Amino acid sequence: MKKTNAYFAILFGISAASAAVPAFAYTGESLAKGAKLTMQDAQSIALAAQPGTIVDSELENEGGGSGLRYSFDIKPESGGGTHEVGVDAQTGKLLENSVEGANPD
Length: 105
What we know:
This protein is of the alpha+beta class. It has helices at residues 2-19, 39-49; strands at 52-61, 68-76, 83-88, 94-99. The longest helix has 18 residues, at 2-19.
């Protein structure tokens, strides 16, 4: 009987501890329900505008367009500096395609 009580006490302790651990989301996950385009759709648009390799991506609130945009850092196939490409998450319109400076944020 004591073993059973100890087992349930340990099980309860583990359950309580795991419930206290916060869930971490990727950047912009909480904004995804407000987007009409998927991340994959926006990636296709960004790569059509700037062929290369996506090295970073996020969904963010930022001025211009609908205010909700996918932002991609793309290393161009042709070499050179990393480009920041912004795609409106509502319309799919290309909002930005520029070379990042020496200290990108």
